[in-house]
Amino acid sequence: MLGTGAALPDPDRAQSSILVTLDNGRNFLFDCGEGSTRQMVRANINPADVPWVFLSHLHYDHVCGLPFFVLSSWVFNREGRLAVFGPRGTQDFVDHSFEKGAFKLDIQARASYAVRQKNMQAIRPEVTEVAPGLMYQDEDVKVHIDLVDHIPTEITDCFGIRFEAEGKVIAFSGDTAPCESMVRLAQDADLLIHECTFPESFLAHRAKSGVGTYAHTSPLQLGQIASRAGVKSLVATHFGHFDSTSPVIKRAAGNHLPIDLMGPDRLDEVASDIRQHYSGELRLAHDLMRIDL
Predict the structure, then answer these.
(1) pLDDT tens digits, residue range 185-243?
(2) Which end of the chain has fewer CB atoms surrounding its CB within 10 Å, N or C?
(3) Residue 157 belongs to a domain
């Protein structure tokens, strides 16, 4: 679990990012929020050794780390092109980030070094914009995706994922309100990694105030999803700063969170509410949590 936070710059949590490593050493990255690359290095993973990334949706806390990841991998001598899978709009995001976009001058400057000039493929990600169904398959893995309920589809698609490898199944929700597609993707999974952005009290506050989206899954709802899907193990993640003690976070969140309720004890509330419907193995995610299957 490289990053387990949400949209604000949290001093204790990087933004959403999950790294899966197979027994043969192959790495697969799911989402790439701010801090993802630094967290890889802290986990003793060379960014250049991560050749594949899936973006669940295009909210900035899930994708803003991608340019830094790509450029850092180039500096770290990545071989070949990064494979990027994501919803419609991903190609536009990539096109506006590198040689034709925001980092054009940086790339021109670094490409004056011969070793970089010989390796320009490393900053030219190969993008595949995806649709529900079997998204990807090779000799090691099979990846199914489906639409989930977060951003209105007229803006962009949001996806949940089912990742099968080495006889195991991992499901990842991205961001979503409760939906049947996520129950299907997680059916009998060995591990479900699911967003649980706000406690019940915080969701009620946001719904009443009308500030921000509340198209997220509450702890009570997450317990129901995990139970219905029959998952063996559950990780709740993408925590929306409700556990933070940072004065800066509290000032910034004052217009959309009940800041008088914020603090680490909210995690106990989250676990207790999940447990009302789910009795299997449960973890509340923290950055650099490692899970072995």
Answers:
(1) 999 999 999 999 999 888 777 777 766 656 899 999 999 999 999 999 999 999 999 99
(2) C
(3) yes
Q: What is the number of H-type helices and E-type strands within the chain?
A: 11, 12
CA atoms within 13 A on the CB side of 140: 9
- Half-sphere exposure (Cβ direction) of 116: Cα atoms closer than 13 Å: 15
Question: Is 1 within a domain?
Answer: no
CB 196 within 8 A of CB 238: yes
Edge-to-edge strand ranges of the sheet holding 191-195 = 133-137, 141-147, 159-165, 168-172, 191-195, 233-237, 281-284
What confidence score (pLDDT) does residue 214 get?
A: 64
Domain with 101, as residue range(s), is: 18-284
Tell me the average pLDDT across 5-34: 97
Which tens digits make up the pLDDT trace of 38-75? Answer: 999 999 999 999 999 999 999 999 999 999 999 999 99
Does the annotation count 265 as an active-site position?
Answer: no
Q: Note whether 159 and 146 are within 8 A (CB).
A: yes
CATH of the domain at 23: 3.60.15.10
Task: Determine, yes or no, domain membership for 10.
Answer: no
Considering the candidates 61, 149, 157, 175, report the single residue annotated as catalytic. 61
How far is residue 31's CA from residue 176's CA, in Å, rounded to a whole number? 14
- Can you list the positions of beta strands (E) in 12-122? 18-21, 27-30, 52-54, 83-86
Domain count along the chain: 1
Give domain status of residue 32, yes or no: yes
